[in-house]
Amino acid sequence: MSTTLSFRELGDVTVIDVAGQIKLGEGAVSVRDAVRQLLAKNQKRILVNLGEVSYIDSSGIGELVAAFTTVTNQGGQLKLLNLTKRVQDLLQITKLSTVFEVFDDEPSAIRSFSSIAATA
After folding, report:
1. Residue 115: what pLDDT?
2. In this predicted structure, what is the pLDDT of residue 1?
3. Residue of higher predicted confidence among 112 and 32
4. Is-contact 55 61, C-beta < 8 A?
């Protein structure tokens, strides 16, 4: 099963809806490339919706971390939405749940970006 990405703009936040598998190879690279493209367009508020991800492996988690680091280093924010149980478990095991801001509902996630904008 391949990975499909779709993009939505909600105000100044770009939502990447990911479906399929994020694993070694195509899936992991497509997420990284998508984030790079958004940063190149100066879109630095990125919400990655993982609700339709059926499988993720360690290289997929590594790509999420790399994307997070790249965005943060460029003064942006990357947050996660709708984690499946598997992704939640992997983030717990790897202690990455303390790194990522994770949300269960989109309105809360979008609001979290604006509250930071107001203080910045």
Report:
1. 59
2. 63
3. 112
4. no
Residues 49 and 84: beta-carbon distance below 8 Å? no
CATH number of 4-119: 3.30.750.24
User: What's phi and psi for 13, nearest 5 deg?
Assistant: -105, 135
Q: Which two tokens stand for residue 14?
A: 């770009």
Question: pLDDT tens digits for 76-100?
Answer: 999 999 999 988 998 999 999 999 9
- The residues spanned by each domain of the chain are 4-119
Strands (E), the chain: 4-10, 13-22, 45-56, 77-81, 102-103
Cα 26 to Cα 86, 90, 120: the distances in Å are: 20, 20, 36
Q: Which residues pair with 102 in a beta bridge?
A: 80
What gap in Å lies between CA 105 and CA 10, rounded to an integer?
Answer: 14
